[in-house]
Amino acid sequence: MFRSCVAAAVAALYVLAAPAMAADGEPVVIRFAHVVADDTPKGKGALLLKKLVEERLAGKVRVEVYPNSTLVGDAEEMQALFDNKVQLLAPSMSKFAPYTKKLQVFDLPFLFDDAEALQRFQKRDTARQLLRSMADYGVYGLAYWNNGLKQLSATTALRTPSDASGLAFRIQPSPVLEAQFAAVDATSVVLPFAKVYESLKAGVVQGAENPWSNILSQNMHSVQPYITESNHGVLDYMLITNNEFWLSMPFALRSELEGIILEVTQAVNREAAAVNQRDRERILASGSSQLITLTTEERQLWRDKMLPIWNAYEADIGADVIRAATTANRRR
Ligand code: LMR
After folding, report:
1. What is the domain count for the chain?
2. Domain assignment of residue 222, yes or no
């Protein structure tokens, strides 16, 4: 037993230390690490990428997918990419906050009316430029992958903002998200995704915010008796790579890979809403959580409390970026 544990640890260290670029004649290995389950928009996207690469670039490229924080967790994954120990990540926008301020636009509460508005924004120039916001770190944004709108879950029913007062919510490492809960007199605790379920179960925090797919796949609903369908923000990802690694691939190979990534991105973003809808129904069918549907007036109360955050972060994000995002709410 001890020996097999040592062997597993040595193997894990080897995986982390192995160079990504292959020797002559060997396929290029791309390690894609993420923190969610396979059966989520991001997990499915990673597996589709692996499948298409197997079909079209066999012998030239091999994609290894590590879901559920099995290779690196969300606290270490960015450093692992900087060090080229992994070559693809798709962190949520909130995970970029320690590195760049502009991407905080995606965390602003009640910014996008719906997932379609987010998609419209992401096709426009302002958002295309934001894909370059990690350039100083040698990181290249390849695409936006959507998950879904976030819902509030808790141990008590959250109907109006005052219901959240005094509760502790798990957040991702984003000052905007901290401000969002402070605005309703709640506290927040930054926790890695892999620790959310057990922290909710142990009562370290009483609530969280997640899209339906993350709630279901982590079984969070089993420890959150109330889910408020707040749709108050988005959980979205940027597919990123290590620039030096990416450019080290021959141009033709890189172009083929980028074509596959475009195809996968379209599939992920086309299907994300349906995956979340499916998981919403599964959660409701499980009977574990009571669904709280807000009236227009109740939702407006949350919005009124949280909207001042846009102004507070305008200097960091840029008024032009916020304006471009809100403009996407109107169909053109
Ligand atoms: C979270 O930490 O809640 C999310 O970023 C997890 C994910 O990747 O969807």
Report:
1. 1
2. yes
174 lines ligand 1 (CB under 6 A): no
The reported pTM is: 0.92
Ligand 1 neighbour 96 (Cβ under 6 A): no
Between 23 and 86, where is the model more confident? 86
Query: Can you give the residue range of the structural domain that contains 286?
Result: 2-326
Classify residue 318: in a domain, yes or no.
yes
Residue 330's pLDDT band (cuts 50, 70, 90):
confident
Asked if the structure places residue 332 within a domain, the reply is: no
Short-list 196, 191, 173, CA closest to 103: 173
Residue 105 to residue 247: CA distance in whole angstroms: 29
Strands (E), the chain: 28-33, 61-66, 88-89, 139-149, 151-154, 168-171, 187-190, 207-210, 226-229, 234-242, 290-293
Alpha carbons 165 and 162: distance in angstroms, whole number:
5
Substitution site in 193, 197, 216, 220 for ligand 1 pocket (most atoms within 8 Å of beta carbon)? 193
Confirm whether 252 is domain-assigned: yes
